[in-house]
Amino acid sequence: MTVIAQERFHGAADETDHEIERTQTVGAGAAAITLKGLEKSFGGNRVLRGINLHIPARQFVAVIGKSGCGKSTLLRILMGLDAPTAGELHFEDTDGGDTEANARIVFQEPRLLPWLSVADNVVVGLGDKVNRDVAAKEVEAVLSDVQLAEKAGDWPAQLSGGQRQRVALARALVSKPGVLALDEPMGALDALTRISMQELVNRVWRELGFTAVLVTHDVSEAVHLADRVIVLDEGRVSLDLAIPYPHPRRHGNPDLAELEGRLLAAILGTDGGR
Ligand SMILES: Nc1ncnc2c1ncn2[C@@H]1O[C@H](COP(=O)(O)OP(=O)(O)O)[C@@H](O)[C@H]1O
Ligand SMILES: [Mg+2]
Q1: What's the pTM value of the predicted model, to 2 decimals?
Q2: Cα gap 191→176, rounded to integer Å
Q3: Residue ranges in 64-218 assigned as alpha helix (H)
Q4: Residues 6+ apart with CB under 8 A from 259
Q5: What are phi and psi of 165, to 5 degrees?
Q6: What is the position in ligand 1's atom list of the atom closest to the CA of 232?
Q7: Distance, CA 195 to ligand 2 centroid (Å)?
Q8: Among 25, 69, 214, 271, which residue's CB has the most CB atoms within a 10 Å radius?
Q9: Domains of the chain
Q10: How far does residue 263's CA lie from ligand 1's centre (Å)?
Q11: What is the pLDDT of residues 99-138, one digit of tens each?
């Protein structure tokens, strides 16, 4: 795993000592996710009705489905923000042992603290058990990963919507998560900003090596970014489709367009019940 990442870095034009240092730990903390018979009800509303999934460490999974089908509920359970009604959730380290995944989430709205600078908003992602000097170094590195190094001292109000969302991404990444959940993080961005944020998410995923679970309503975004797309319908996985193309991907690839069509048909129920 690390070897592949190092090859990528050696091929990169802007290689620096800082990046080489990071390759040594690429993907080291990435966690696999196993869900067995996972169910969630709110009163009589059975939202998740038996989800069985194994997501290998470092895989990028997109979850799509109609509004209200339980995508955010699934992410909240992955984050430990909500408990399942039945079934099991496990995280495994790269050796297959049970682990506590350091799972982080980015929402559609950035949820920054307006009275803190960009850098201090990112520090929040480290929790309070971190030495100040270490924190400063980590924050500087992650802000440069999201191309906001020069905005460290700015207030959130001085940033564009896309930049604020990149701060939220940096805050989630600064603690080197094993699992990163993304709940429609590009949903509120304009089309061009969305494409550059997609490229950024793809690049940090390849460089930092976490397991990614992206909820999106944009089927094209799903096939562009994910190794695998899962369709949720009536509380179950109705389609689990591999997207077997190398990253980064070009927009306008006809093979991806074909997969996009299949996924749309599955969501809209126009695929003959397959
Ligand atoms: N805390 C909650 N209490 C009661 N019902 C909830 C709660 N959270 C979600 N739901 C219900 O669960 C269903 C799925 O919601 P959600 O996971 O947000 O859907 P999605 O993200 O796919 O649009 C909806 O019917 C919603 O009303
Ligand atoms: Mg949702």
Answers
A1: 0.89
A2: 29
A3: 71-79, 118-123, 132-145, 161-173, 191-208
A4: 223, 229, 241, 243
A5: -70, -30
A6: 22
A7: 21
A8: 214
A9: 1-7+26-102+211-274 (3.40.50.300)
A10: 22
A11: 888 999 999 999 999 999 999 999 999 987 678 888 899 9
